[in-house]
Design brief:
single chain; alpha/beta; Quinone Oxidoreductase, Chain A, domain 1; Rossmann fold; 2 domains; 26% helix; globular
C-alpha cells in the first residue's frame, strides 16, 4: 500500500483541499510515478465543474503529469525505476481491441481516463499502465513538458494522421494554449502557417512562435480574402465559428479539422464540401507511439509550451488564473 497526498474537490463549486488516499499493491503492468510537475488544462476545469456530467467526487484532477518512475510491476516493459515519464489524458487501454492492436490506442472503447473515475496528478504520486507512461527526452525541460501530453498531442496528432505536408499552406484558428503549440509544430514541419486570432495585439508574439501571417478572425472581409488558400486548417477553440467562411478558405481537397469541444452543433453546407472535395473532421489526443514521436520532434526542434508556474500548495490560485485570467499560455503546478 502507498499513501498518496493530493488535492481534491468534493463538489462542482468547492475549492481543492488536501486529500489523502491509499493505492493498493501495484499490478503487474502498472507503474507508480512520483510527480514533479502537473499542468492544468481546461479539461480539468470541465471535470471540476462537472460540465460533461460524469465527474465523480472527490476528484483529484491533473492529466498533464511529469515525474520519475518510482515502482514498476513485474510485467512492465521498456520502463525502469528512475525514468522520467509523462502521463496524459489516458492512463490505460485494453491492448486487445482492433483499435489498440492497430496502433490507435487513443480510440480504445474501454480506455481509462487519468481523471475519470480515478485520481489524477494533483498529487505526489499517480499510477498508470506502463504503455501510457511515455519516456521524456532529456533535452525537454520537465517544467514545461506536461502540457505536451494533452494540448501538445491534441494538435500534433492530426498533422501525422492526415499527412500534412511540408509544402502545405495551413491555418491555425485560436492562439491560446493549443494554438500556440500548433503554430510551433507546423512551422517546424515546414508549412506556411497562418494564425487566425481574435486578438490582433498578439501578432508579434505569434510571429515569433512561427506564424508567417496573422489574420484577424473577427474581420469578415479579411476572412473572405483567404478564399481557396489552405490545404489544412485546424481549429483549437471550443466556441462556435463562422464555419462556412473557413470552408471557403480551403483549397480543393482541403481539410477543416477541429480539436475544440464545441458546445453546439456545427452547421455546414454540403455543396461547397462536395464540389471542392473538402473535408471536416475532429480527433482526440493521440496514441502512445504518436506521443513519443511528438516528444522527439519537440526535442529536435526546441519546441515547448510557454508556461506560468505555481506550487501545488497554490492550486486554487492557479485554477483561478486559468479560469478567470489570460495565462501565456499554459499553467503548471510544481509538486
Amino acid at each position: 500500500m502507498s499513501t498518496v497526498h493530493a488535492y481534491a474537490a468534493t463538489s462542482p463549486s468547492s475549492p481543492l483541499t488536501p486529500f489523502t488516499y491509499e493505492l493498493p499493491p501495484i499490478d503487474a503492468e502498472h507503474v507508480d510515478i512520483r510527480v514533479e510537475y502537473c499542468g492544468i488544462c481546461h479539461s480539468d476545469l470541465s471535470m471540476l465543474r462537472n460540465e460533461w456530467g460524469f465527474t465523480t467526487y472527490p476528484l483529484v484532477p491533473g492529466h498533464e503529469v511529469v515525474g520519475r518512475v518510482e515502482v514498476v510491476g513485474s510485467l512492465v516493459k521498456n520502463i525502469k525505476v528512475g525514468d522520467r515519464v509523462g502521463l496524459g489524458w489516458f492512463s490505460e487501454s485494453c491492448m486487445t481491441c482492433p483499435q489498440c492492436m492497430g496502433g490507435d490506442h487513443n480510440l480504445c472503447g474501454s480506455g481509462e481516463g487519468t481523471i475519470v473515475g480515478r485520481h489524477g496528478g494533483f498529487a505526489d504520486l499517480v499510477r498508470a499502465h506502463w504503455a501510457w507512461a511515455i519516456k521524456i527526452p532529456e533535452a525537454l525541460p520537465a517544467v514545461s513538458a506536461g502540457p505536451l501530453f494533452c494540448g501538445g498531442i491534441t494538435v500534433f496528432s492530426p498533422i501525422v494522421e492526415f499527412n500534412v505536408r511540408p509544402t502545405d499552406r495551413v491555418g491555425v484558428i485560436g492562439a491560446g494554449g493549443l494554438g500556440h503549440l500548433a503554430i510551433q509544430f507546423l512551422n517546424k514541419w515546414g508549412c506556411e502557417v497562418t494564425a487566425f486570432s481574435s486578438t490582433p495585439d498578439k501578432a508579434d508574439e505569434l510571429t515569433k512562435l512561427g506564424a508567417h501571417r496573422v489574420v484577424n478572425s473577427r474581420d469578415c472581409e479579411a476572412l473572405k480574402a483567404e478564399a481557396g488558400r489552405f490545404d489544412f486548417i485546424i481549429s483549437t477553440v471550443a466556441v462556435p465559428l463562422e464555419w462556412m467562411a473557413y470552408v471557403a478558405a480551403l483549397a480543393p481537397k482541403g481539410r477543416l479539422h477541429t480539436v475544440g469541444a464545441i458546445p453546439e452543433p456545427v452547421a455546414l453546407d454540403a455543396f461547397p464540401l462536395i464540389m471542392g472535395q473538402r473535408s471536416f473532421s475532429g480527433s482526440p489526443l493521440g496514441s502512445p507511439a504518436t506521443t513519443a514521436l511528438m516528444l522527439e520532434f519537440c526535442a529536435r526542434h526546441g519546441i515547448a509550451p510557454m508556461v506560468e508556474e505555481f506550487p501545488l500548495s497554490e492550486v486554487n490560485k492557479a485554477i483561478d488564473r486559468l479560469e478567470n485570467g489570460s495565462p501565456r499560455y499554459r499553467v503548471v503546478l510544481q509538486a
